[in-house]
Amino acid sequence: MAKTFSLCRNDVILNKPPVIDFKARWPALFEFSQIEEEFRRITLKPLLSTFLGKLDQYTPQLLSLYRRKGGAVGKKLDETLDMLNEDSNIESRREVVIRGLILYLGENTGELIKDFQVFDDDDAAAVQEAITTFVLGIFVVSKARDGLPKQAGIAIEGAEVLFGIPDVAHACTYLMGLIYALELRYPNKLKYTFEVFQKIFLELEDANKKMSSKVHDLKVCLHA
Question: E strands of 11-158, at which residues?
Answer without folding.
Answer: 113-118, 136-143, 151-156
